[in-house]
Amino acid sequence: MPSPLPAVRKVLVGWLGLPMFLRMLAPIAVMASLWVSSSIPPTPRPPSVWRDLLHNGAHIVAYAVLAGCWLLAQRAASLLTPAPGAWSVALRSVLLAIAYGVVDEWHQSFVGRVCSVGDVLSDASGAALAVAALLAVLRADLPARHLLPWCAIACAASVAIATWLPW
């Protein structure tokens, strides 16, 4: 069975061929949708570990998408070749997603939702996972491939922390 990675890479390279101002719309749209969804006050429900795990896992997915959008909004040349500054682009994408996660958690404290350090940890680990995966696909980046299992472990740990620890 052939690997789907060449097809995924082709789609990503096609996305990188779009003008940068269009690619910048993606992270803005993701942030807007996260802001709107986190503005909705929670409905009271009986405690459920499964619901908590799904909610905390959704942080991984949402901030993976956000960091991936930030990464794919960068200059294409810095993403397609293993240039010296490419890891700074990756770090910037992760830090932008984390910064937005912190701002969104702060925002949630004003709308009757819980402001949680565990959620920010989930946001950060999801962002790192997405950026490592995208670099591994776009550039066949060996260090990024080696980071993937560690990022996955961090994602699982952060979801467990957000679910079972009181902060």
Written overview of the protein:
- This protein has one domain.
- 77% of the residues lie in helices and 0% in strands.
- The chain has helices spanning 5-16, 20-23, 25-38, 49-72, 76-80, 86-108, 117-139, 142-164.
- α6 packs antiparallel against α7 (117-139).
- It is globular and about 50 Å long.
- The mean pLDDT is 92.
Number of domains: 1
Low-confidence stretches: none
Characterize the overall form.
globular
Which radius of gyration do the C-alpha atoms yield? 17 Å
DSSP helix fraction: over 70%
Count the beta strands.
0
**In sequence order, what are the helices and strands, one letter per element?**
HHHHHHHH
Major pleated sheet: none
Concise account of the structure shown:
The chain has 167 residues and is mainly α. It has helices at 5-16, 20-23, 25-38, 49-72, 76-80, 86-108, 117-139, 142-164.
Offer a few descriptive terms.
single chain, about 170 residues, mainly alpha, globular
Write the layout of secondary structure elements.
Blueprint: H1 5-16, H2 20-23, H3 25-38, H4 49-72, H5 76-80, H6 86-108, H7 117-139, H8 142-164
